Amino acid sequence: MFINCICWLKYGLLLADEAMVLAYFTSGLFILGLFYGTDYIAKNYSFVNAMHILGLFCCLMSVTLSGSPLVSLRTGNKGSMNYPGILSAVLGGIWTYYGYQINDLFVTIPNLLGFLISMFQIYIIYAWGNRYTKLESKE
């Protein structure tokens, strides 16, 4: 994720796009702060506290990224809900099983939610097909 921020930051610098530079610079700082902050907490306070902070952040990011294509339900454009969602569902199921086997809720819960969200996206793609368009409001 940090490498992604750095790449987009460099791209924004090349474009001289101040908004992009600001967004990815602050995101990169946040991520660095999270990693170094949890390292500091682990060394000086408790490894368990650091693990919980980072685990919760990872869960939040996983669920957010898995659910982001669902925004297309509101816009009526299912272009962001694509067929590779099948792969997301399979991988989410595998990681859910792995998290269950190692008894780690930080692995199990976001991957289970990602699996369910991917299955819902697959349902929308196959059940609605080309009929899925935004309903026009009557004026």
From TrEMBL:
Keywords: Membrane, Transmembrane, Transmembrane helix
Alphabetized InterPro entries for the sequence: SWEET_rpt
Keyword DNA-binding in annotation: no
Pfam families found in the cross-reference section: MtN3_slv
Annotated GO CC locations: membrane
Transmembrane spans: 21-38, 50-71, 83-100, 112-129
Name of this chain's protein: Sugar transporter SWEET1
Organism field: Rozella allomycis (strain CSF55)
